Amino acid sequence: MIRRLRDNPAWQARLDIGLRVAAATIGGYFFTYACTAAMARLLPLARFDAVMVSSLLAFAVYTAVIVWVFAAASAWRAWLGIALALPLAIIGFWPGLFGSGA
């Protein structure tokens, strides 16, 4: 039964679409959140201004991630690209993890 489903092209297409939707919503949110935190730390502005600019840019980033996920060659490449947000998350959240956030 499972082998028959695995070889079915319709089932594979549904799985691909489901993985892309999950990557766009869940992964896109994580990527945008990490990117926003990194931009808020790295922008050479006052803290309030950096947070406001990075929050406004988050809408464009999230939209770009959603478009990119559905334009990627495969769902696995989309997830791999979203996994690249880990360095952004480290930049954005590392000082705050240990209570020494500036």
In short:
The protein is built from 5 helices and no strands. The protein is mainly α. It has one domain.
Main beta sheet? none
Q: Count up the helices.
A: 5
What oligomeric state is this?
A: single chain
Distance between the termini: 57 Å
Low-confidence stretches: none
**Overall spatial form:** elongated
Secondary structure tally: strands: 0
As a percent range, the share of strand residues is under 5%
Count of the domains: 1
**Rg value:** 17 Å
What number is the mean pLDDT? 84
Helix content: over 70%
Characterization of this structure:
The protein is mainly α and 102 residues long. It has one domain (22-93). The chain contains 5 helices and no strands. The chain has helices at 2-6, 9-42, 47-71, 75-83, 86-97. Helix 3 (47-71) packs antiparallel against helix 4. The longest helix has 34 residues, at 9-42. The model has no long low-confidence stretch (mean pLDDT 84).
Key traits:
5 helices; 0% strand
Question: What is the topology?
Answer:
Layout: H1 2-6, H2 9-42, H3 47-71, H4 75-83, H5 86-97
